[in-house]
Amino acid sequence: MSGMHAQPTGPAFDIVLLLHVGCVVAGLATVVTSAATASRVRRLIGANSPLPETVTRYFRPGTNWAGRVMYGIPVFGFILLAMSQGAYGLSDAWVMIGLSIFVVVVLLGEGVLWPAERRIQVGLSSLEEDGVADAVAHDAQLIVRSATVALVLLIAGTVIMVAQP
Fold first, then answer.
1. How many distinct structural domains can be found in the chain?
2. Where in the chain does DSSP place strands (E)?
3. Which residues of 12-22 are buried (b: 16+ CB within 10 A; e: fewer)?
4. Is the pLDDT of residue 130 over 50?
5. Residue range(s) defining the domain that contains residue 63
6. Rounded-to-integer distance, Cα 59 and Cα 124, Å
7. Closest to 123 measured CA to CA, from 141, 111, 144, 139
8. Which class for 4: exposed (0-12), middle (13-18), buried (19 or more C-beta within 10 A)?
9. Rounded to whole angstroms, how far apart are CA atoms 109 and 157?
10. Rounded CA gap, 102 and 161, in Å?
């Protein structure tokens, strides 16, 4: 084998790989849920309809910890690189592309998506005040758009990680 290392195997590698994939799946689920719930808020506010308890519960004050599970993607990814004994490395284009996609997803989450969620959390407690409903509807649209972009990026990253071009 000239310079090529064997495909990593073993139960420890498999467990870390499952944790890595689990963080991706959780990330996909949270951005889909965020987009769907924000879309529902926007529709209901536009129709001047009361918000169901499930919607207000989703936007209750607090940090979106489920969304932060995405931080496990690179953590477990780096562990996988270390465990691969040279089969994979940062010099592999697909690894750097995946890492770059992750950075964009985090910037989108931390810079747009999660701040909009926090503003909605505050806004829902004072919807009767002038202009608040419009601001909440605007932030809901921002969530839908940013979550959609994050979803596309996470899917693209998944395809790249699986294909390893």
1. 1
2. none
3. ebeebbeebee
4. yes
5. 11-163
6. 8
7. 139
8. exposed
9. 16
10. 12
Answer yes or no: are the C-beta atoms of 56 and 117 closer than 8 Å: no
Q: Is position 2 within any domain?
A: no
pLDDT in tens, 30-49: 999 999 999 999 999 989 88
- CB 146 within 8 Å of CB 37: no
Cβ neighbors of 144 (< 8 A, separation 6 or more) are 35, 38, 39, 42
Its pTM stands at: 0.86
Residue 6: inside a domain: no
Whether residue 37 is contained in a domain is answered as yes
Tally of CB atoms within 10 A around 105? 24
Residues 49, 55, 60, 65, CA torsion sign:
negative
- Give me 158's structure tokens: 């998944």
Query: 70 with 26: CB under 8 angstroms?
Result: yes
1 belongs to a structural domain:
no
CB 81 within 8 A of CB 90: yes
